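Re: your question from the hallway

Yes, I did run it. Sequences:
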Amino acid sequence: MKDIDISNELKILGLEAISNAGSGHSGSVMSAGDILFTLYTRHLISGLKDEPLRDRFVLSNGHACAGLYAILASLNFFSLDELKHFRSFGGLLTGHPEIDIPGIDSATGPLGQGVANAVGMAIAETIMNARFHLSHYTYCMVGDGCLEEGVGLEALSIAGLYKLNKFILLYDKNDVTLDGNLNKSSIDDMKLKFKSMGFNVLECDGHNKKKIDRAIDKAKSSKDKPTVIIFKTIIGKDTPLAGSNLSHGKVFKLDEIDSIKKKLNVEKPFLNLSVEAKEYMSLVRKFNDEKLSIRKKNFENFLKNNKNIEKNYKNFTKNALKIKNFKNLDKISTREANGIVLNEIAKNVENLLTLSADLSSSTKVKIENGGEYSATNRLGKNIAVGIREHAMGAIANGIALHGEFVPICSTFLTFSNYMMPAIRMASIMKLRVLFTFTHSSIFDTPDGVTHLPVEQLDQLRLIPNMIVARPADINECAVCYNWLLNEESKPMCLVLSRGNLPPLNINENMIDGAYLLKQGKDKITILSSGSEIQIALDVADALKGKYDVNIVSVISIEKFEQMEKSKRSKLLKGEIFVIESSPCVKYLKYTSENHIFNVRDFGVTGDETSLKNHFGFTSENISKKILKILK
Amino acid sequence: MKDIDISNELKILGLEAISNAGSGHSGSVMSAGDILFTLYTRHLISGLKDEPLRDRFVLSNGHACAGLYAILASLNFFSLDELKHFRSFGGLLTGHPEIDIPGIDSATGPLGQGVANAVGMAIAETIMNARFHLSHYTYCMVGDGCLEEGVGLEALSIAGLYKLNKFILLYDKNDVTLDGNLNKSSIDDMKLKFKSMGFNVLECDGHNKKKIDRAIDKAKSSKDKPTVIIFKTIIGKDTPLAGSNLSHGKVFKLDEIDSIKKKLNVEKPFLNLSVEAKEYMSLVRKFNDEKLSIRKKNFENFLKNNKNIEKNYKNFTKNALKIKNFKNLDKISTREANGIVLNEIAKNVENLLTLSADLSSSTKVKIENGGEYSATNRLGKNIAVGIREHAMGAIANGIALHGEFVPICSTFLTFSNYMMPAIRMASIMKLRVLFTFTHSSIFDTPDGVTHLPVEQLDQLRLIPNMIVARPADINECAVCYNWLLNEESKPMCLVLSRGNLPPLNINENMIDGAYLLKQGKDKITILSSGSEIQIALDVADALKGKYDVNIVSVISIEKFEQMEKSKRSKLLKGEIFVIESSPCVKYLKYTSENHIFNVRDFGVTGDETSLKNHFGFTSENISKKILKILK
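Structure:
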């Protein structure tokens, strides 16, 4: 039996799954099918997620997943029966790839994210290779869309910068997007564009499997550059809509699929494969597993002969951490505090990496003795990504997906907007990624409105699965790392001040995420966080004599809400006030709007004192208003 | 007196303003100064914002503004004295450029936004030129950072696609970013990269004013391509930190500035200019105004000789609109409803433009008889931007900034995340831009978690100055356009369903933003919006016999909050419940958490019915819970 038939069978299987589901994306199943088939049968050494030596594959054009699912099913990553429940509630095979599916290395769908994830995986591989001789290829498929998205372009520049020669981009160039022919939205010379970004560029007929095979072989031999193979393909190939954008989201009817089958001489049961195809793909899986086990043996032999490296490898991902108390520190900003904590932790926790969008001098997120990662220093622990916040986030996700590292991104809070889609993907995949954001309030810089965060803190707090923390001093900062490193895998946003803040008394309840910072006798409680804690303390002082208030430092409102209800209730004594430089919408659960001293309007240029006066964010003004309410 | 001295005087003036402010960005003042000087003294025909024929200039690397402010002051756009209050509270000259400043065409600061704004302006110019012979150049300065940002790269591809030959990019290539030399974060061959995107590429010494002059001349003569001039410059030139990243955010002390002045033979008073420089720049302004007035005369003469065009021009931006009632429509989705409304309005309102990130077939945001904008059809009203949501938003901002058009962007709600920084800039600048987002709930598509919006609606609602509307039928949709077109300039997000919804009774109070959709006898009120209105109506049915509830359709919670308090109070009768597919955080002002039926967790793959059952978003479940609470 010839390969061609099996590839066609698998593509048809993809079409059938879409037809059966009643929705999905047929066009790219047909354009990408031969490339995916050749990759999976001849090159990719695939495996389950607990196998660090497997090659990685990311389908950045996630909508093409029906074709990939068909291949993965044929390779027994899951049963063929699962295809019957493609896109159904409760089924394994989701509308776009998700990481719970065996054989899927990254959740994709929002275009451009996947290619950046893959760049992150390839970076992680270079480090694991340099440290432990743990090596593999990282493949990524993209369509035209991923290469229009800025995040994809940002990531590719980084792949070129870091000379990720084992990163292989399979570009399914069908020259069609949803709304029409590609030339309606892009006339970029992609060959030239990839060259400008430091790529090897190969071109290939994407429907000729022998040529595909040879092109991937050539890509694998690259010594100093990432490679893109530009595969010229036909969207919806072999269907009545071949070459048309209408094939993109087309759901073919069964009789239409029957005609396609006839045309291609494909004989196989509906939503199933021929016996020959099954046997062939079983054999492919067997060879695959043999190749993987050879790779594993070689790796184990290497470790056996290098006992020191073996020991390091085995301890590498053990990032358990005991909180250390930091004492006798001066008034410092929490960005500086975070730098101290991070570096203290990095002494014992080996697998931290920082990524900076060109602001590490300001965010202070840098492992001081970690060295700078580069094409010639794969051991460097600080990765410069340039002014590319979006790719930074998505690359960090890819590094986390690789399995060994805890990546730590940094930029200003206001620029968290630039990386929101990547932050969301970290939350969807529950990745242990730390996003640090400095300049945490509108009072933190005279840079003016564009640099002053208002809505960002609350926007981040709205993302499911996300912990957002806004510590007020170094020890509050330290407990955040405890959550990050010792609790279940989850992303975290750490929001840090530029302005200096006095250290607080060490309190064993900090770890809860919210705790009684100041005990008062009256049933009046101020909730506050970060740089506003000092205002809250000043307000308490101003109220002295009349009222003796409680102050609760809410390091993380999500943590606060995860506390046992009884414990939480104890912190919510009497009349509740809130002071925080954010819209504070989540606090509306605990008190009424007029008890909340927040920031809802854009900031303006000016110094801290003028701005605080302007926005009424002074202890004088706030204590006066509280007195009025309490009267 | 030679030019060189005046350019140096102006750069020094910039350094002094920074020194006086105590913060700012000196490095790029010195790298970009000679380019800006040559542009403003020899090419740019500048003017105030009410002058449509002026050339446009966007400083995309907004942090370099001190140098630009110095030039604008010298040209009498504002008094030199303003430089004394640079970065001060209440001063005119903000930390980064803002549009209230005379001579500033776009607020910039977040990198990459400005270049996309400029592309939008250049697109607007091609349309105004084709329609009315209103023509000018659009210049944009970028640093290395703007060209690392994805949004900048997306926008440049669009400039190439649309052959914007009067778009001239002045690239201040100083090869240094905040954290170090550019080659730490980018080894892109920028010449090749620009070529791949369809640009004319010129290279030039950025400190040789004669050569700068000639290069800009050459750029202006381009017939069919946008032009980039890659100016090789030195960051912090002529300062002790020349060439070093440390000059980026350096604030030089007065004695350091004195040394620089001595070195450059600059003699001028502190925060002021020499008499000669003032005279020279006055002359420049005079010539500038003469050139502008010639351009105006030519334009007026053209209109005089083309009475039809003149009439069209004078009516072009009059987008006043009366709400029309749409009657007897079937059950349709609000995305379809919006398409109908938009096309109805477009019959009379001439200056609407749509931009689609390759989803117009799905979002239905398209002016049906408007034609497709292209390099050969500048009259087309539908602009394809490819899968580049971020640039779409920022280009729309640029089009709005140009002054004549109301741009309407479209994509899925979940992808609003991709364009958040641009949406924020629209709000900061109070631009009349409409952002339409379809697939408005987690029940709207079987595409799976990545395509299901959860937090986005509330994230958008947190942006200051923003109106977010989620209409439930075609007439609710129509009133949103009334707000957009007839009220003060402000951006709006219009969130639309994919699922079909029954039409509602026409109600004159829709225009308020929230109104009593169903009157009940009991003091129980359900607030709801968009696709959940139907659930609310079903809940009311289910409660019948026991309770007769009120239903308020909250088309826009921001509008609701702008209503007169007494009017609003009337809508908040008795016990308040909320039903909406979002976290509903803003509704916490009106009721307690357990009265809110919302969506806080990520969605999953599946059909609408299964998902509604899974998330308990059915009238059966919700009415049961309401009954329990009311007991």
